[in-house]
Amino acid sequence: MLYGVWYEGNLCNMHLLKLSNEVKRGVEDAGMVGFRFNTVGVSDAISMGTRGMSFSWQSRDLIADSIETIMGVQWYDGNISIPGCDKNV
């Protein structure tokens, strides 16, 4: 399972779709199956000084919950996480 936080509106995350394509290709070249899924990725730099900052901490829980949900429900064998910045790790 490949998890990423690709999002065009965030400089930290906008390159992650391309990176996840490379990782998926490597997983498949190794004879495994790589399924990708995405979750939210916020940037404090964008929301600094606005009401948006109140969502920074929430986003960390949402990211963790979404990974745990997908991995738990589907019984996948492994997870490769591709974070973009400190809020996504």
Describe the structure.
Strands 2-1-3 form a three-stranded parallel β-sheet, with helices on one face. The model has no long low-confidence stretch (mean pLDDT 86). It is flat, with a radius of gyration of 14 Å. It has helices at 16-29, 44-47, 56-74, and strands at 2-4, 36-38, 80-82. The chain has three helices and three strands; from the N terminus they run βαβααβ. With 89 residues, the chain is mainly alpha-helical. It has one domain. Helix 1 (16-29) links the parallel strand 1 and strand 2 (36-38). The longest helix has 19 residues, at 56-74. Helix content is 42%, strand content 10%.
Helix fraction, binned, reads 40-55%
**Separation, N- and C-terminal Cα atoms:** 16 Å
Radius of gyration: 14 Å
Biggest sheet character: 3 strands, parallel
What's the order of the H and E elements?
EHEHHE
- What is the strand tally? 3
Order of the strands making up the biggest sheet: 2-1-3
Overall 3D form: flat
Number of domains: 1
Overall average pLDDT: 86
Q: Tally the helices: what do you get?
A: 3
Strand content: 5-15%
Pairing-aware structural class of the strands and helices? mainly alpha
Ranges with pLDDT <50 over ≥5 residues? Answer: none
Pfam families: ILVD_EDD_N
Keywords: Lyase
Organism: Gossypium barbadense
Protein name: Dihydroxy-acid/6-phosphogluconate dehydratase N-terminal domain-containing protein
Write a brief caption for the model.
Helix content is 42%, strand content 10%.
What's the arrangement of secondary structure elements?
Elements: E1 2-4, H1 16-29, E2 36-38, H2 44-47, H3 56-74, E3 80-82
Parallel strand pairs: 1-2, 1-3
